[in-house]
Fold these 3 entries.
Entry 1:
Amino acid sequence: MTVQIDHALEEIRRFRPSPEFAAQAVADEHLYEAARADRLGFWADQARELLRWEKPFTRTLDWSNPPFAKWFDDGELNVAVNCLDRHVEAGLGDRVALHWEGEPGDRRDITYAELTDEVKRAANVLTELGIGEQDRVAIYLPMIPEAVVAMLACARIGAIHSVVFGGFSADSLASRIDDAEASLVITADGGYRKGKVFPLKPVVDEALAKTDGGTVRNVLVVRRGENEIDWNAERDLWWHETVANASNEHVAKGFDAEHPLFILYTSGTTGKPKGILHTTGGYLTQVAFTHKAVFDLHPERDVYWCTADVGWITGHSYVVYGPLANAATQVLYEGTPDTPHPGRWWEIVERYKVSILYTAPTAIRSFMKMGRQIPHSFNLRSLRLLGSVGEPINPEAWIWYRHVIGGGSIPVVDTWWQTETGAIMISALPGITDLKPGSAQVPVPGVSIDILADDGDPVDGENGGLLVVTEPWPSMLRGIWGDPERFKETYWEKFGTAPDKSMYFAGDGARRDEDGDIWLLGRVDDVMNVSGHRLSTAEIESSLVAHPWTAEAAVVGAADETTGQAVVAFVILKQSQEEAVSTLEDVSEVLRKHVATQIGAIARPRQVFVVNELPKTRSGKIMRRLLRDLAEGREVGDTTTLADTSIMQVISSQVR
Ligand code: PRX
């Protein structure tokens, strides 16, 4: 209900693009017209205009075996050449590609020529280490330039990278290395976070001790934290001893447009993370197009900053591939927003004269809490466009972002997309769209979105329903690594297997208002969104029951003012263990820590409640909806389908 009221109030707020902004905007109405008139032709034009092809394609889309799409598949290109060499050849070698800033305050400006050089050296090292086309390379690095170099070096030689976020635990890293059967891990001794060095190489050592396959032959280590590490002389190599001494001559070859580029693991509704597979030609086309059109990129004068870590899809598409394909100058920052002082981000905006900032609502909300005086003690007048991603942005945060950070008159674009979609799918286009706070607004040109009821029929009017993508798009996932069946079932068979019912099911609820603008309503499955990061209830539940004290566990995502959602767990202890357990507070602490160690700190529950029972239906299914009511402090909803309808009273009294 609150959602509805909120929307009714917000609908009166619209912001027209200013005439000055519109006059210089990259995107204009023609894009929509062209895409409406000939969708595939539109994408083919983008692919030809935005990228360099070693061999031009003649076929745009092969959809003869859905849901396995092939885009531009008789063409050949090299992703690294598109992001680097061609810019240097066009005379842009001296343009800064990365203004890098480490958390302790060390800085490096890296030009396109220097970045190209470094990627060529790294590519030579990878080849010397026996990494060939299609081999998998796990990358477990902090936000340092070498992360970008490592990804592009893989792309250059046709190897497949699997970047694992540096906050993940040894277990999580091990399962990802195993699933992809990686031959090489690229890591650092450590990285800086909140003023301290966090170890990475020791986590890799621990992960490799666990992986049974033993597919990893080498570990390439960047020196960053200068922390003590163990060394396995047969397996480990220093980056500064190999890459720095390698030749900077490297001739890149073109690969098929459907050659795999990367695997990125993300949470689904089951306990096992899915390795989302992306390929080259279509992916690069859509990330380059959206990066340019949605962020109104003028590469010759803009300084762009996306605050995401390269360990997430946003870092892949809008730190590495989109901006570099478009020859942008960007900021890369290693650390946390509040180290060593709460104005760190704004100091960076001022120092580099950032003009485009792309971040997540959770960050905006935590800045809101700290107050406007912090950003206002810096000069933010260089900003001319703001973006948001990762979760719905509430209208108040949107308005604060525009006014306090943006000075009140610059566009804010809210971009909806997913690891699976590879690139932005729904967003306003600045300079064209009248902006509406809280709504992600309209599909980008060339993307077809609909909202359907559970049975696959169209929803009535402005009713909420399920968000679907009705036509294949260039940057769509090509599968789940090693699991084509799961790919089909999870995403394409929600409404049945008949050809006219096969559509991409995103897992998000949405509604369309009377103007046709789309409002995202959150996940409809057991996936949580904590600070814009995806977590699965099942994954955390299985971690909790792996602890010797726990008999059963249920996890819900409860609304949280800052992080959007927070993990709240309900556990039943094993009777045999109850004596071993001292106080319930201790249990809660121990289990919170256990989850953080098993999965990573982002998965640590905000609360763990010890209860005697969990609410179950007669068929034994846990009713998480009721637990969510409890966790959010609401009146508990309809309990009539519970096997024992009085159980919620018992649980409520235990939780209080
Ligand atoms: O629920 C949606 C939410 O984040 C999910 C995708 O998460 P992930 O694959 O980790 O990618 C995040 C960054 C692209 C979606 O299913 N989401 C993402 N952006 C938005 C959003 N929800 C509402 N509004 C958004 N702008």
Entry 2:
Amino acid sequence: MIKIDQITKSFGQLEVLKGISTEIGKGEVVAIIGPSGSGKSTLLRCINLLEVPTSGQIIINGQAITDPKANVMQIRQQIGMVFQHFHLFPHMTVLNNLTYAPIKVKGMSKDKAEQKAKELLARVGLSDKADAYPSRLSGGQKQRVAIARSLVMEPQIMLFDEPTSALDPEMVKEVLDVMKGLADSGMTMAIVTHEMRFAEEVADRILFLDGGRLVEDAAPADFFQRPQSERAKQFLEKVR
Ligand code: ADP
Ligand code: MG
């Protein structure tokens, strides 16, 4: 579904992605892990064109999204993204946070958007918060709203950039549980995370980045039990 072919990304003189190639199949869940500054966020942001790769190609469903003529708006609509900080609209209720884009961008009727939004709030366990404002929610609740808000656009791919890193420990599980449910439902997902147990349990594959290179691309059992590279061994010793 997603083919990443020799992408590089430089910011001025700094080359942060140094030729990354991999593929993500439909329904596959890939965890991207690695040290801080290794290029994880940049790689994720290239997949939905928040960053434009300096060279190389990304092909989604046969369409080269890195082609200068590609329709960026249309590509982004197929890809949901959830960030560490939730970026909810503070002046809108939870329900309106969810219905805003489908109404404005997709031209969905208000009734239909609200019906869909309510289904998704139920799915993330927040039916009772439809009329609340974000400031009244806990971090875990905000992140679950952010996930529901992405899903309301019916993306084919969901990208997560450290979705639980800003949360108090007791709220991490409720967000990971929602993500696990989404994975079980067959969503194609790429997740930057430091939650190693979650990655081991939920991901189909681990991408380990170091210094802008894809150092390991392996099944979780292989990566966690038999890391091939010295870099991955050192990293795992530190985080486990
Ligand atoms: P990670 O998510 O693995 O911590 P990032 O992809 O955020 O790593 O960053 C990789 C490197 O690229 C870092 O050295 C970071 O400072 C640099 N970088 C990221 N975004 C920019 C930017 N917009 N301008 C300049 N440098 C950037
Ligand atoms: Mg990052």
Entry 3:
Amino acid sequence: GKDDHDIKREDFPRDFMFGVGTSAYQVEGAWNADGKGLSTWDCFTLRHPEKISNGANACVTVDNYSKMKEDVQLLKKMGVNYYRFSLSWSRILPGGKVSMGKNLEGINHYNKLIDELKANDIEPFVTLFHWDLPQALEEEYRGFLSSAIVDDFVNYAEICFWEFGDRVTNWVTLNEPYRYAFSGYVEGSYPPGRGAKNAESDPETEPYIVAYNLLNCHAATYRKYHEDFKDLQKGKVGITLDTNFFKPYRGPHNKDDVNAVEYAYDFMFGWFMEPLTKACWPENMERFATSATARHPNGRALPTFSYDQRSKLINSYDFLGINYYTANYAKIRGPLAGVASGYETDRQYDSSEVDPNGKPIGEQAYDGSWVYLCAHELVELLLHIRKKYRVTKYIVITENGSPDKNDTKKTYEQVRDDNYRIKYIKKHLEAIRTANHKNLNVKGYFVWSFMDSFEWSFGYTSRFGMIYVDYRNNLQRYPKKSALWFKKFLSIENGGHRKRALTNGEHED
Ligand code: PNW
């Protein structure tokens, strides 16, 4: 059949977006160079080294800020036609707000990056916000806990559209608002470190307020682009949501776990997708998050979207970005003992990476990793999304990838033959081919990540790159086997858009 031959470039339309991704805080370094202001991640890693493996930070990381041209050459060699990266808000607006002044050197850096990409036939795919909020806004009004963020976000976005929109036509407003709200305000593992374990915070309301403000930032930015820039710049504005695929723990006949699957979507993907499509919260979220509690004896309520916010939200995306890594089992759970009431107790389900017999849900990247290879589940996820949320706009897989198999090993020799990653990517490309045969309208695929970099809580202990970075020797870059595999897959012989550009010392197999 048409779905079972080895995956080829020709299985995808010529204008399919093939790329790799990074984010500003993870790769740039240059944390205080050329007028950049501090971000919440700069401050958090320095103040809370205990929250990051080995107390690491990304003040320097892989120094993509200075190695920008070299890195664009690596992208070119790889043969990708798109590159996804994010802008550092505090590099452009050091104090977060326009009134505090623009940083022309920061703007200039991104102008150079964008020009360099275009000169090498690579289209920029740009995320406005990949979690690194200007610290000044966190301090002034507690960042996304305040609706004051919306005007500042839109003003920042407007500067980006104004400065870069003549050359950038693919925009993502937010990367993974779910993880931003969950890790920052439930787990407390990301800045601002709030949540159940932080006595000052209110886990019953804060994650929901943050989600509300994130959504309003997104929607207002989308409308701003369509009102003031779209006619001239002709670009697209989307949002990137992260979701796992969920399966009922005890199988499809267990009603409780089938409900748990619903709750899992409602509290992860639907948390953002329902507001974007219906301008309201998922019904189950309304049901479980509005009860009377000790902290809120008169009952607590989810934030309500005003009429104006609703009309901005509905269908406020030209495409839907999805970050897909793995699947989980969902199982129903009763009241939670010993956990502060809030988002975590509201969601009524536990996730599990193994079935009731202890069998893992897919091939695990390495012992202890959260990534399992569950590629066919991506097809099911896309079908589910289309059905449940009636998504008809095109989809871009904005992230998909795996950490190195042997994650404790550090040398190039130990990780260069990344066969697990090659298999992982191949299987997901096959899944996308199948999805498109079912008219699921996937127009792009970005591997996470272009190169090894600062992996948030994991610091430098988890490597997602197709390019290896030697942290012990001058941050030298070397391709892992997957980079060469991807290059071959994308090459002209396979119907790729560009001639092969193999040079000095590189060999194919
Ligand atoms: C995403 N989890 O984050 C981010 O968008 C990237 O910046 C990040 O490097 C990449 O995935 C790989 O982790 C996630 O623990 C972080 O389930 C953690 C999880 C999922 C996504």
